[in-house]
């Protein structure tokens, strides 16, 4: 696969986007980009400087001076603020709640999209999020949309939160994810949707290795089809 391309992975919370993104990046020797980490970084900073994440004007003023260092590599995606790696803190329930608020704000989405497009200029990127194939990179060479049932997604997300010190129960996690699903699919700016031309995969009953194997085969299929003009 000599020609380096942009690959997008979209879908709701808990479907396995991050796991797939890392595995594809490692298999292809591409950089892994987690767009959600950028929204979470904005929420983290709002919390850090005591700005209301639900106040668009206050968040916009904060963004004017917010210049995190973003590192995209085959091994993973990191965000640092003033030399401090905040990546491990971005998956906590508090930051997650804040990210759902800032993600609805046009100024924040513009900031994130600009950052993502700058990263894409270097080529060879696997990027995951909720509007990458539909809005940020509509011309991406290969697009995926992952899905799974709510119970499965809640169980996966709960395990992540527990690993980072959270203590939410499964019912609470289900409610949180269901609320985020409604917000993402109904927001006025860049709602969550299946991008045109994306491969749709339901990961409910699939192991991460199975998802990655299927997606690698589809990537090769798409590139071969383009090469022979299909």
Key traits:
9 helices, alpha/beta, 16% strand, three-stranded antiparallel sheet, 230 residues, 8 strands, single chain, five-stranded parallel sheet, globular, 50% helix, Rossmann fold
Describe this structure in words.
- The chain is of the alpha/beta class and 230 residues long.
- The chain has a single domain (6-205), classed as P-loop containing nucleotide triphosphate hydrolases (Rossmann fold, 3-Layer(aba) Sandwich), CATH 3.40.50.300.
- The protein is 50% helix and 16% strand.
- It has a five-stranded parallel β-sheet with strand order 2-6-1-7-8, with helices on both faces. Strands 3-4-5 form a three-stranded antiparallel β-sheet, covered by helices on one side.
- A hairpin with a 2-residue loop joins strand 3 (69-73) and strand 4.
- The longest helix is centred in the last third of the chain and has 20 residues, at 208-227.
- The model has no long low-confidence stretch (mean pLDDT 91).
Tell me the distance between the termini. 18 Å
User: Could you tell me the radius of gyration in angstroms?
Assistant: 17 Å
- Indicate the low-confidence ranges by residue numbers: none
β-strand percent reads 15-25%
* Architecture (CATH level 2) name: 3-Layer(aba) Sandwich
CATH level-1 class: Alpha Beta
Strands, count: 8
Structural class estimated from helices and strands: alpha/beta
**Share of helix among residues?**
40-55%
- Mean pLDDT over the residues: 91
Overall outline: globular
Largest sheet descriptor: 5 strands, parallel
Lay out the secondary structure.
Blueprint: E1 6-10, H1 17-28, E2 31-34, H2 35-48, H3 56-63, E3 69-73, E4 76-81, E5 84-85, H4 93-102, H5 106-120, E6 125-129, H6 132-136, E7 142-147, H7 150-163, H8 170-186, E8 199-202, H9 208-227
Parallel strand pairs: 1-6, 1-7, 2-6, 7-8
Antiparallel strand pairs: 3-4, 4-5
Helix pairs in contact: 1-9, 2-4, 2-5, 7-8
């Amino acid at each position: 696969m000599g020609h380096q391309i942009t690959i997008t992975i979209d879908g709701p919370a808990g479907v396995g986007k991050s796991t797939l993104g890392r595995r594809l990046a490692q298999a292809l020797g591409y950089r892994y980009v987690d767009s959600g980490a950028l929204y979470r970084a904005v929420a983290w900073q709002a919390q850090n400087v005591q700005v209301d994440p639900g106040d668009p004007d206050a968040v916009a003023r904060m963004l004017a001076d917010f210049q995190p260092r973003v590192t995209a590599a085959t091994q993973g995606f990191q965000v640092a603020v003033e030399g401090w790696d905040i990546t491990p803190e971005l998956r906590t329930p508090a930051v997650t709640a804040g990210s759902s608020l800032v993600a609805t704000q046009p100024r924040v989405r513009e900031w994130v999209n600009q950052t993502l497009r700058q990263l894409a200029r270097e080529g060879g990127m696997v990027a995951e999020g909720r509007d990458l194939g539909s809005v940020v990179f509509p011309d991406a060479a290969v697009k995926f949309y992952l899905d799974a049932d709510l119970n499965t997604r809640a169980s996966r997300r709960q395990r992540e939160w527990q690993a980072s010190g959270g203590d939410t129960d499964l019912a609470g996690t289900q409610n949180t994810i269901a609320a985020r699903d409604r917000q993402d699919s109904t927001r006025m700016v860049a709602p969550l949707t299946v991008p045109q031309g994306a491969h749709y995969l339901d990961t409910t009953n699939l192991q991460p290795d199975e998802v990655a194997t299927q997606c690698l085969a589809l990537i090769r299929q798409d590139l071969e089809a383009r090469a022979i003009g299909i």
